[in-house]
Design a protein that fits this description.
Layout lengths: L9 E2 L2 E2 L3 E6 L7 E5 L3 E2 L4 H11 L1 H8 L13 H13 L7 H4 L4 H7 L15 H11 L2 H22 L7 E8 L2 E2 L8 E3 L4 E4 L2 E5 L4 E6 L11 H15 L2 E7 L6 H10 L3 E5 L3 H7 L16 E8 L8 E8 L8 E7 L8 H9 L1 H15 L12 E2 L2 E2 L12 H30 L5 H9 L3 E6 L2 E6 L4 H13 L8
Parallel strand pairs: 6-12, 12-13
Antiparallel strand pairs: 1-2, 3-4, 5-19, 6-10, 7-9, 8-9, 10-11, 13-16, 14-15, 15-16, 17-18, 19-20
Protein name: Transposase DDE domain-containing protein
Organism: Rhodovibrio sodomensis
InterPro entries: Tnp_DDE_dom (IPR025668), Transpos_IS1380 (IPR047960)
């Protein structure tokens, strides 16, 4: 029987099945590097992130909450498609917008970013870079920006409740921190900051240090004072946290925040706080008698002691409780000291208990460091009007550039980064619960997120094949996600 010759299908300039020789390794001439049109991905972990999205229901809910000004009859990608694309790329470490076009046909992203089902999802390309970037303009609208904050708080609440069989935490400490973010060029609202010696934004971030959850963010100019806008931000976070999350046990803040407006505002609200204080000459004179090293030979292990003081700064309306913390030095130098100010009464917590509670901020700072180092938020959004809908030219899509606030766009991008962090945190805490060991985001990335995968389609069935040596991590995370008690979507 005569064999029928078939012309190979063309894909990306090469026939399917053909290979393109790239390299013969000099260190080993038998090693050949070739490029082929196979459905391979280095981002198999996107499947796990999509599972976290589905369990939490947060992306579907956020898409329903958003005000989308686009004509629904003229769009190809829904708000949920755009949100999934943006969050999956961020979670997998693709922070630059120009990466989107290169990854449009990556099989892991194709099957996870779309809302469609079935094996045909392998052929549904991601939205283009320009389409994805216009999502920022939609999210920059005031009502949508607010929805991002609500989604971030809701995701933290759902994760905590799911891991506690649907029960709320009774009481949590909330940490308020600045998160300096370097910017390139002259983004609106950015400014040179003399302390950091670079041009930055200086947003406020609210988080739960004990659990690693991010609650909200507020973008601020790069030259903002530490306490600028802090009272309104904290009040809003506390109100929503006590409605959705838990009773707020204490607000913890660092040395740049304790001004009269903030402290008196929290006191009038009945919100307890602990803040570090910058030293000054008056405090040093007040505490001098208690900062001397005790007489006698010092023990091998340095000693530390705390003392309650009452102090009124010149700008304060009243005296406040100050905790003096003195730490002995091993080199024989004079002990070092620092100060805390708190609204918690001495009969409620001793000075030692206040110090211990404040030192738990270190966990929050570690998680903030992960946000900055792992996600590395790139705040460089700029207005980009849409010129086409479904291939047809239009005068404009949503808003002309002059009506889009680039500062608000960058704030929306920051909040998207924190939502991406929360999805990673869902996967991380599931892995920790299943394995009984701590997991950093970098370990999660190496062990799970960047899993190499091959996609095989057979009829209506779609298989993703990963290396067996990583299967135990996948099984542990998926099993834990199934064990947790997730609330129904929209709840």
């Amino acid at each position: 029987m005569r064999e029928l010759a078939t012309k190979p299908k063309q894909h990306g300039g090469h026939a399917v099945g053909e290979s393109e020789h790239l390299l013969t390794a000099r260190f080993n001439r038998s090693l050949q590097v070739e490029a082929r049109d196979e459905r391979l991905s280095g981002d198999g972990g996107a499947v796990l992130l999509r599972e976290a999205m589905e369990r939490s229901g947060i992306v579907a809910d956020l898409a329903d909450w958003l005000e989308d000004p686009r004509d629904p009859d003229l769009i190809t990608y829904t708000p949920a498609d755009l949100l999934r694309t943006r969050l999956l790329l961020m979670g997998q470490g693709w922070r630059h917008g120009q990466d989107v076009d290169r990854l449009r046909h990556d099989p892991a992203f194709c099957v996870t970013a779309t809302g469609h089902r079935g094996a045909e999802t392998l052929d549904i390309a991601l939205p283009s870079q320009s389409t994805v970037s216009r999502l920022d303009g939609i999210l920059a609208r005031p009502a949508n920006n607010r929805r991002l904050s609500e989604a971030l708080m809701a995701l933290a609440s759902r994760r905590l409740k799911a891991s506690r069989k649907g029960r709320r935490k009774r009481r949590l400490a909330i940490d308020i921190d600045g998160l300096p973010i370097a910017v390139a060029g002259r983004q609106p609202g950015s400014a040179f900051n003399g302390h950091y010696k670079m041009r930055i934004y200086d947003p406020l971030i609210a988080s739960v240090g004990a659990t690693g959850d991010m609650l909200d963010a507020c973008l601020r100019a790069g030259n903002a004072g530490s306490a600028d806008g802090a009272l309104a931000f904290i009040r809003d976070v506390v109100a929503r946290a006590e409605q959705q999350l838990c009773q707020v046990g204490v607000i913890r803040i660092d040395a740049g925040f304790p001004g009269e407006e903030l402290l008196s505002g929290l006191e009038s609200d009945g919100t307890p706080y602990i803040a570090r204080m910058k030293p000054n000459a008056a405090l040093d004179r007040l505490s001098a008698p208690y900062r001397r090293r005790p007489a006698g030979r010092p023990p091998e292990e340095p000693r530390e002691w705390c003392l309650d003081l009452s102090y009124q700064a010149g700008s304060w309306a009243q005296p406040r409780r100050i905790i003096l913390v003195v730490t002995e030095q091993t080199d024989g130098d004079q002990p070092r000291a620092f100060y805390l100010v708190t609204s918690i009464a001495e009969e409620a917590k001793s000075a030692e208990e206040i110090l211990q509670l404040y030192r738990e901020r270190g966990t929050a700072e570690g998680h903030m460091g992960e946000v900055k180092a792992f996600l590395a938020p790139a705040l460089s959004s700029s207005p980009r009007p849409k010129s086409q809908y479904a291939g047809a030219p239009v005068y404009r899509a949503v808003d002309p550039p002059t009506e889009i606030d680039a500062f608000a766009r960058n704030e929306a991008v920051l909040k998207l980064n924190l939502i991406a962090y929360q999805l990673l945190h869902v996967a991380r805490t599931a892995m920790e619960a299943a394995t009984g060991t701590g997991v950093s985001l970098h370990r999660l990335q190496r062990a799970v997120l960047t899993t190499s995968a091959r996609f095989v389609r057979s009829g209506r069935r779609l298989s993703m094949i990963i290396e067996r040596r990583f299967a135990d991590f996948w099984q542990a995370i998926l099993a834990q996600l199934d064990r947790w008690s997730w609330a129904p979507p929209g709840a």
